[in-house]
């Protein structure tokens, strides 16, 4: 009898929990300006950059990343060690409420490791971030040699449309 009671209680509680997560804090993490650097063909790894925007009221923690073109993606930052710039893997990345966190060349980035083939300009790469809350946020990243070259391309496209 007690077990039956428990089962009914759980069944009635679980849907409520699911709804609370749906409208929860993590749907407010947005990815902007995602791009992947096109390196010469044959290189096994490259880097991806993006801006994370937390539009919520609580901190969002990114625990891992993935990309559809790479075996794995790591979060890296660049630190100066004895005058040399070294890449260092980050276990997590926290975005404070209201914060815009820019991952850009020379600083924090996503490292795409074990590429099947190097993406080329014009390709799109899907990047996904796995959050501490078990949610995942994904975005399509443009591929180019630099952010400037991508902006120039987009500008040309816009002019062409007119
Ligand atoms: Cu790196």
Describe the fold and architecture.
With 162 residues, this protein is an alpha+beta fold. The chain has a single domain (26-146), classed as PCu(A)C copper chaperone (Immunoglobulin-like). It has 2 helices and 10 strands, in the order H-E-E-E-E-E-E-E-E-E-E-H. The protein has helices at 2-22, 147-161, and strands at 29-37, 46-54, 60-67, 70-81, 84-90, 93-95, 100-103, 109-115, 124-131, 136-144. Strands 1, 2, 3, 4, 5, 6, 7, 8, 9 and 10 form a 10-stranded mixed beta sheet that branches. The longest helix has 21 residues, at 2-22. The protein is globular, with a radius of gyration of 20 Å. The structure holds copper (II) ion. Residues 47, 76, 87, 109, 111 line the site of copper (II) ion. Copper (II) ion (CU) binds at residues 47, 76, 87, 109, 111.
Tags for this entry?
162 residues; alpha+beta; Immunoglobulin-like; 10 strands; 22% helix; 47% strand
Topology (elements, then pairings):
Elements: H1 2-22, E1 29-37, E2 46-54, E3 60-67, E4 70-81, E5 84-90, E6 93-95, E7 100-103, E8 109-115, E9 124-131, E10 136-144, H2 147-161
């Amino acid at each position: 009898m007690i077990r039956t009671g428990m089962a009914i209680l759980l069944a009635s509680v679980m849907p409520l929990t699911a709804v609370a997560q749906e409208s929860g804090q993590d749907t407010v993490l947005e990815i902007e300006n995602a791009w992947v650097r096109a390196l010469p063909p044959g290189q096994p790894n490259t880097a991806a950059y993006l801006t994370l925007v937390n539009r919520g009221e609580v901190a969002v923690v990114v625990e891992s990343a993935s990309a559809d073109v790479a075996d794995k993606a790591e979060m890296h930052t660049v630190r100066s060690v004895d005058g040399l710039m070294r890449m260092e893997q980050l276990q997590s990345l926290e975005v404070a409420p209201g914060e815009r966190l820019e991952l850009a060349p020379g600083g924090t980035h996503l490292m795409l490791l074990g590429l099947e083939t190097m993406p080329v300009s014009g390709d799109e790469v899907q990047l996904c971030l796995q959050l501490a809350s078990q949610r995942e946020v994904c975005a399509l990243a443009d591929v180019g040699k630099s952010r400037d070259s991508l902006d120039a391309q987009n500008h040309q496209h816009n002019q062409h449309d007119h």
